Task: inverse folding
C-alpha cells in the first residue's frame, strides 16, 4: 500500500496498520531535500507512524535511524546533514517512551551495491562505515523476530558476520 506520511492523518495511517504483527519505519526525506522536509519526514512522519502503530495495536516496531546522530551539533557537520541527524534524533527520542516493543536500527551510509549478507551489528558506537540497503532489509527481517532486541538501539555496517548470526549475537 502507498501512504504519503507527510499529508496523512493518524486515523488513516492506523487503518493501514490494523491487523499487522509489526511495523517498520524506514522512510527518509533523502539527499537534496531541505531542512524543513527532513523535519516533516525524518521526524514528523516517524512520530506519526509510531502513533499509528500504537493506535492500531501493533506491538513490534523497528525504526530505521542513522549512525552519527550524536554529531548533529558538531560544527564539522554540513548544515543539511545536521538537519537530517537532528530529525532522526528527535524521532528516536519520540519513540523510546512509547508503549511499543521497539528496536532502533542506525545503519551507516546506505549504498546500492548488491547484498553481502555480512554485517557488523552492535550497540553504539560503531566506527563509520557503509552498508547495502539489501543488508539493512535483511537485518530488519531478523530483528522483527528477535525479541531480545526490544528496547535496544543498534548500529549497523557491512562487516564479516552473517546477518542472522550478528542479530543473534546481540540477544
Result:
Amino acid at each position: 500500500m502507498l501512504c504519503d506520511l507527510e499529508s496523512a492523518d493518524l486515523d488513516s495511517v492506523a487503518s493501514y496498520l490494523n491487523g499487522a504483527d509489526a511495523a517498520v519505519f524506514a522512510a527518509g526525506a533523502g539527499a537534496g531535500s531541505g531542512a524543513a522536509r527532513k523535519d516533516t519526514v525524518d521526524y514528523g512522519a516517524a512520530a506519526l507512524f509510531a502513533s499509528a502503530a500504537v493506535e492500531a495495536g501493533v506491538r513490534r516496531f523497528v525504526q530505521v535511524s542513522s549512525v552519527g546522530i550524536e554529531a548533529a551539533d558538531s560544527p564539522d557537520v554540513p548544515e543539511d546533514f545536521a538537519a537530517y541527524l537532528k530529525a532522526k534524533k528527535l524521532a528516536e527520542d519520540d519513540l523510546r517512551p512509547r508503549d511499543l516493543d521497539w528496536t532502533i536500527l542506525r545503519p551507516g551510509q546506505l549504498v546500492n551495491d548488491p547484498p553481502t549478507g555480512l554485517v557488523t551489528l552492535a550497540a553504539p558506537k560503531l566506527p563509520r562505515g557503509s552498508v547495502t540497503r539489501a543488508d539493512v532489509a535483511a537485518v530488519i527481517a531478523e530483528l522483527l523476530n528477535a525479541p531480545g532486541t526490544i528496547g535496544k538501539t543498534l548500529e549497523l555496517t557491512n562487516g564479516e558476520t552473517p546477518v542472522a548470526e550478528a542479530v543473534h549475537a546481540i540477544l
